[in-house]
Predict the structure.
Amino acid sequence: MTEIKAEQVKALRDRTGIGMMECKEALQEAGGDMEKAIEILRKKGHARAQDKAERTAADGAVGAYVHATNRIGVLIEVNCETDFVARNEEFKELVKNLAMQVAASNPQYISPEDVPAEVIEREKEIIRAQIQDAKKPPQIIEKIIEGKLGKFFEEVCLLDQPYIRDDKIKVRDLVNSHISKFGENIKVRRFVRFEIGKY
């Protein structure tokens, strides 16, 4: 079996918007060939989400969630393409669940693309300092940094976080499953989280 590298999986996920596990399986099936892997995903019906991701999401809903203790509250804007989907109960449920995710997991950004370069560099510096005593070759050090950076994104990026209601999937996978279901692009546009005593 062809060994699939993490950066290949990430590249395929970036191109298709599909979950890491599906991308890895498709790459293994395709023997590491990127175009063939996209074809495999398309045949399985996964790749439809990426086609939708190019379209403008100009409608949507603002959702609110206030925790039972009244100490944490969230406002979130989630966009879709039509008011037909925006009014759909399942879409509203998605918006509510995303607001609850923000309340529970306190992400700082929507996706890794939104993390400023200087924040990523600072995180890399911290990781390098943590592993500076490890007597490992440079390529292994880079792999460790990449892995730890992935964990960092899981903590601070909403779409990379494990979903609070099913930690086997990422929030990104949850959104993509709704894109496939509704046949429309869905985007988390912005959110704000309030917590008593924290600014």
